[in-house]
Amino acid sequence: MNLIIQGLEIQNSDLRELAKLVDANHIERITDQAFRLKSAARREEVAAYCAEAGLDFAFVDPSARLSDFGLVAMDMDSTLLAIESIDEIADMQGVKAQVAEITQRTMRGEIVFAESLRLRTALLEGLDEDALQRVYDERVRLSPGAEKMLQRMKSAGLKTMVISGGFTFFTDRVKTRLDLDYAAANRFEVSNGKLTGKVLGDIIGATGKGEVLKKVREELGLKREQVIAIGDGANDLKMMEEAGVSIAYHAKPVVQAKATYSLNHVGLDGVINLFE
């Protein structure tokens, strides 16, 4: 196995200590924030050491190549984007605190997603539709490393997809901005230029995310092992189950516990450093 170490500031002393801990025979620089410890033995002590040092780690098969995969599926809010879009919409309505509290409880798995979305959307009743464009123009920010990750994945031949429990107003624009291949999300009901506080059609929640990914995967003729899924909340778990490699990005503990790898310190470009 290879041990990939990533962090915003990596000390040489930590690399040497980790190399000794896992009996690695060589330390290879990937970037200033990523190093590969080659021929490493898996040691449980690595997790505690990296947590103390503020480092991300991953034991990776040295034969794994990014070009082995055919599709990457990403959650949108707090994953591809550095915001929770519905929380920012709520700020326009003066109910951000109430909506954000429900969002956090949902991401921890304390509330079923569909019910959570209905509760949060109901609080937006009467908001001018124009406020959605203001949120996109003024609040939307990509997560660090997002564009670099996508550029590398596209060059390796992967199709790209955003699957969100949020809304198409944002996923459609993000898809265009980043030239993604697929996008799926929920739809606001709008009447006379204002949000009604309702969601149109079936809600894409945890189960829906998994179903959408499986459908696209099968359409592309890919095996589960050829898919990477990236998410941060409990409603991403079904989507991540449909992928061969799942990555918890700055995620809740319930997601990290079930993911193949976790990134808690570096940006999304940390994903591409996991593969040769």
From TrEMBL:
Pfam family, one: Hydrolase
Annotated SUPFAM superfamilies: HAD-like (SSF56784)
InterPro entries in the cross-refs: DUF4072 (IPR025138), HAD-like_SerB (IPR050582), HAD-like_sf (IPR036412), HAD_sf (IPR023214), PSP (IPR004469)
Cofactor(s) needed by this chain: Mg(2+)
Domain of life: Bacteria
Alphabetized UniProt keyword annotations: Amino-acid biosynthesis, Hydrolase, Magnesium, Metal-binding, Serine biosynthesis
Enzyme nomenclature, EC number: 3.1.3.3
Protein's pathway: Amino-acid biosynthesis; L-serine biosynthesis; L-serine from 3-phospho-D-glycerate: step 3/3
Active site, per annotation: D75 (nucleophile), D77 (proton donor)
GO-annotated molecular function: L-phosphoserine phosphatase activity; magnesium ion binding
GO biological process: L-serine biosynthetic process
Reactions the enzyme catalyzes: O-phospho-D-serine + H2O = D-serine + phosphate; O-phospho-L-serine + H2O = L-serine + phosphate
Parts forming coiled coils: none
CC annotations in GO: cytoplasm
Database matches in Gene3D superfamilies: HAD superfamily/HAD-like
Domain DUF4072: 3-46
Similarity comment: family membership: Belongs to the HAD-like hydrolase superfamily. SerB family.
Protein name (Swiss-Prot/TrEMBL): Phosphoserine phosphatase
Organism: Nitrosospira multiformis
